[in-house]
From TrEMBL:
The keyword Endoplasmic reticulum does not apply. Keywords: Cell membrane, Electron transport, Heme, Iron, Membrane, Metal-binding, Oxidoreductase, Transmembrane, Transmembrane helix, Transport. Coiled coil: none annotated. It is found in: Cell inner membrane; Cell membrane. This is Cytochrome d ubiquinol oxidase subunit I. It comes from Brevundimonas variabilis. The chain crosses the membrane at residues 15-36, 57-78, 98-121, 128-148, 192-211, 223-240, 323-347, 359-380, 404-432. One of its GO terms (biological process) is aerobic electron transport chain.
Length: 470
């Protein structure tokens, strides 16, 4: 039934599906780990119980998100050996060590302190527990650093040579590989996106509970903190995105051409196409709504600066324009919507109506999931815009695939879809249930002493319950 399908396309769909599911969880856990460190630090500094109760509230959510991120991430590495074994053989000498460093530094750090963070508050000192929380947050940052270094090298490969076997091998300093040209910009843009995504989720949860009870101190505190974060970080993210775009123009011009919808070169200034329907067959954007010379102004800071178009790229080396064109606009549009939410929250704060403006609260709830949509749209822009290469300009996607028949890839794709929607759908439902629970004083903690399933039950764990007869 699947014999007529292209196994490379199926493998790409499978990787896109699994990475999209996976990327949701790290984009949340990176920001949430830092938020937990901030909450615990504020509790230690001020002694206010509201910070401790919010810490315990979000700690339970973090545990579920972190677990789902780990499980979904394991699948990614297996696909390198199943669907993309040729890619693994060719790039392994460069990318293998970087991924190993991620495990040795970040994952071990997270695993070593995660148990203390989740269950050790009543078993270790306050300062040691805070150190554990900070180490988990640091681990998520280091993990993102290594993974984004790997991805950035695939986008802008440097510091390599190709040996007689056709493999990419290090040539010179490893720093040239790790700190490749697009890595600093991609790291900054992705980390800020994670913090912004987390602030929108926290703000949505706070807004939800404010609509039910605007006097709830926990809802007020988390909503206020989230809106401060959105108001401060959203403009920084737009600036970081602009820097990332300029770097992409320098090193991956075909991707920017697809993002802008520039099928033709513009020697006297390129227009900014706001909306339209890319028509790759006719090499134009139909029904284009554009601002004359604005693209040259943004990308070159000169409205009359020339910009090359896709007519300078061979047809078989062009990225899929329609996908990149629209995913980029979804990301940018949501970014400005986040900026708008931050500005409105500042207006509400100035009017002393931050907790008494139901329209703002409903808007915050509506914006809650947009961070996830934006990061996935950004990821699609990055990865689809790199096509038709897995290593930009060096290794074609069609040359990276395992020698598998279409039915085999299709069967595993169907299995992934079924399992992912079942497992992670249930996980997402449970997360929503946890978030729907109203934060309260003295959030539930693990018992101070172990409760035995047999034998004598420790008296301190009975909480006043009658003791069994002697």
């Amino acid at each position: 039934m699947f014999d007529h399908l292209d196994p490379v396309i199926l493998a790409r769909i499978q990787f896109a599906f699994t990475v999209s599911f996976h990327f949701i969880f790290p984009s949340f856990s990176i920001g949430l780990a830092s938020y937990l460190a901030v909450l615990e630090g504020l509790w230690l500094k001020t002694g206010k119980s509201v910070y401790l109760d919010l810490f315990k509230y979000w700690l339970k959510i973090f545990a579920v998100v972190f677990a789902m991120g780990v499980v979904s991430g394991i699948v990614m590495s297996y696909q390198f050996g199943t669907n993309w074994s040729v890619f693994s053989v060719k790039t392994g000498p460069v990318l293998g060590p970087l991924m190993a460093y991620e495990v040795l530094t970040a994952f071990f750090l997270e695993a070593g302190f995660l148990g203390v963070m989740l269950f050790g508050m009543s078993k270790v000192g306050r300062k040691l527990h805070f150190v554990a929380t900070c180490m988990v947050a640091l681990g998520t940052f280091i993990s993102a650093t290594w993974i984004l270094s790997v991805n950035s090298w695939m986008q802008t490969p440097t510091g390599f040579a190709i040996n007689a076997a056709g493999q990419f091998v290090p040539a010179g300093s490893w720093l040239d590989i790790i700190f490749n040209p697009s890595f600093p910009y991609r790291l900054l843009h992705t980390l800020i996106a994670s913090y912004l995504t987390t602030s929108l989720v926290v703000g949505a949860v706070g807004a939800w509970h404010l609509l039910k009870d605007r006097t709830n101190p926990y809802a007020r505190k988390m909503f206020s903190m989230a809106m401060w974060m959105a108001a401060i970080v959203a403009p920084i993210q737009i600036f970081a995105g602009d820097l990332h775009g300029l770097n992409t123009l320098e090193h991956q011009p075909a991707k920017v051409m697809a993002m802008e919808g520039h099928y033709e070169s513009h020697p006297d200034g390129a227009p900014l196409i706001l909306f339209g329907i890319p028509n790759s067959a006719e090499k134009r954007v139909d029904y284009a709504i554009e601002i004359p010379k604005a693209s040259s102004l943004i990308l070159k800071h000169d409205p009359n600066a020339p910009l090359a178009g896709l007519d300078t790229i061979p047809d078989n080396r062009e990225p899929p324009v329609a996908i990149v064109f629209w995913s980029f606009r979804v990301m940018v549009g949501l970014g400005f919507a986040m900026l708008g939410l931050g500005v409105i929250s500042l207006i509400a704060r100035a009017r002393r109506s931050l907790y008494d403006w139901p329209l703002l609260h409903r808007l915050a709830i509506l914006m809650g999931p947009t961070g996830f949509v934006a990061v996935i749209a950004g990821w699609i822009t990055t990865e689809v815009g790199r096509q038709p290469y897995t290593v930009y300009g060096q290794l074609l996607t069609g040359q990276s695939h395992s020698p598998l028949a279409a039915p085999a890839v299709a069967a595993s794709l169907i299995a992934f879809v079924i399992v992912y929607f079942a497992v992670f759908g249930a996980g997402a439902w449970y997360l929503l249930k946890l978030m729907g629970h109203t934060p309260q004083a003295h959030e539930t903690e693990p018992p101070q002493v172990p409760i035995r399933s047999a034998g004598i039950t420790p008296a301190s764990a009975l909480d006043g319950a009658p003791r069994p007869a002697e």
